[in-house]
Amino acid sequence: MKVKFITLGCKTNQYETNAMEQRLSNDGFEIIKEDDKTKIPDICIVNTCSVTNIAERKSRQMLRKIKEANPNAIVIACGCYAQVAKEEIEKMPEVDIVAGINEKNHIDEIIKNYLKLNENSNKNLSSNSKNKIIGSKDTKMKTNKETKNKIVEVSDVMHEKDFQDFGTTTYTESTRAVIKIQDGCDRFCSYCIIPYARGKVRSRSPESIIQEIKAISKKGYKEVVLTGIHIASYGKDFKDENVKKYRQEYGYPKEYVSFDPKEDLSTGGFRLIELLEQINKIDGIERIRIGSIEPKLITEDFIKRLSKLNKICNHFHLSLQSGCDETLKRMNRRYTTEEFEKSANIIRKYFNNVHLTTDIIVGFPGETEKEFNKTYEFLSKIKFYKMHIFKYSVRKGTVAEKMENQIDGKIKEERSQKLIELSNKFEKEYNEAMVGTNTKVLFEEEKNGYYRGHTTNYAIVNVKSQNDISNQILNVKITGENSLELFGSID
Ligand code: SF4
Questions:
Q1: Ligand 1: distance of its center to the CA of 10 in Å?
Q2: What's the gap in Å between 393 CA and the centre of ligand 1?
Q3: Whose CA is nearest to atom 8 of ligand 1?
């Protein structure tokens, strides 16, 4: 049977789509590329996103669109939106299977159950027995208004304690391999639904991560990106006996600082830093990139240890969201601008030519002109390499949904434009400072007559080459910059 995936949302979702593809492919299913119009899929799986109301709307639109284009296909909605709104999706006539977050891990079995159920029902079920709910609290099977039985399988992720390990997967973005190291988030920022969709922090075992990276390295990948929902929390959920086991296995002293709930990102026995130290030892991997982290993780000790690892890229995505303390408080972010600035300074002290990038939300409920100006000033002081600007969008079911003083769309647009201009200005300045320097670039692909790649600090570099230089790390002399990209020649 032919299966087509459509993925919405973040890197973690992309990773999980890839893992599901590999699982189904091993099971004899044929995977069709998303843009392949030559083959008709028997099964369409939409890996949905729930991060904003807009993302949910897009997920619903995609489910309808895919059914319209493939009326005979089995349509599956899985992922975050399916997890938080199973009843809503269950009602959609276009959808045949609703599967939550954990269910991605056995999507093959769910599909087989569905096929069996419908095969049997076509033979055995009388029309009277249709529309009948069968099954347990969490798993139910239901007929839709036409002829098929639906399957709804969404387990209670909020009480899930174990990381659902997909095993060795190869998910790549150009020449970078993306590795999922944890799931879930315990931070409960007031605007975010993700902790409800993904549950509590669950970390993947170091053995499993290292095994996957070793396999990826053997395939010739040189760069890995560690991803997850809140990777700064990596290891906080490990049981004491596991911490002891991992520490012994990887040669750390027996004594360690026990996990302190108040300092939950910087204490505990086997955390992100220990994991990174082990990944750094893997032969063949030359670059390690860390996904989005938060300032509370950045202590002098953490960065000092990190700076000793030769493969860590000098680029950190340090999520800020607002440069105003009052707004940060309403967002339930757990740091102040002063603490953030301290973290940025520590990183800059230990890493040369480091680029810091960030995410900012404008127009958060109650954000006055004065508050926005504070953010603008703070951003001007920190001077990020690049800022991703998001206009606040209400998410049903969050604390911020009920907050007073929701901001007018026009104001959000104006604030967003101002920050985009500021971001572009800084990026251009940083890029101009790189002209005339030599730097190493990992080339990814050919585009418009140029080979394109990234420096360790995540600047984009273009060079002309007669040879295929993709997946090679080469020395480049930077000769110019244009439209926020660098140009150069191979040294
Ligand atoms: S840290 Fe905040 S924004 Fe990020 S996933 Fe957790 S709750 Fe959402």
A1: 13
A2: 15
A3: 192
Q: Does residue 187 line the site of ligand 1, with CB under 6 A?
A: yes
Closest ligand 1 atom, residue 333 Cα: 2
pTM of the model: 0.90
Local mean pLDDT, 10-residue blocks, the chain (491 residues): 95 94 94 90 96 92 96 96 94 95 94 88 44 39 58 92 88 89 96 94 97 95 96 95 95 89 90 98 97 94 97 97 98 97 98 97 98 98 98 93 95 98 97 97 93 97 95 97 95 87
- Give residue for tokens 């003083």: 405
| Cβ-contact 68, 39 below 8 angstroms | no
For ligand 1, say whether the CB of 195 is within 6 Å of any of its atoms: yes
Q: Could you give all domains of the chain from N- to C-terminal order, each with its CATH number?
A: 2-155 (3.40.50.12160), 158-182+193-291 (3.30.750), 316-431 (3.30.750.200), 438-490 (2.40.50.140)
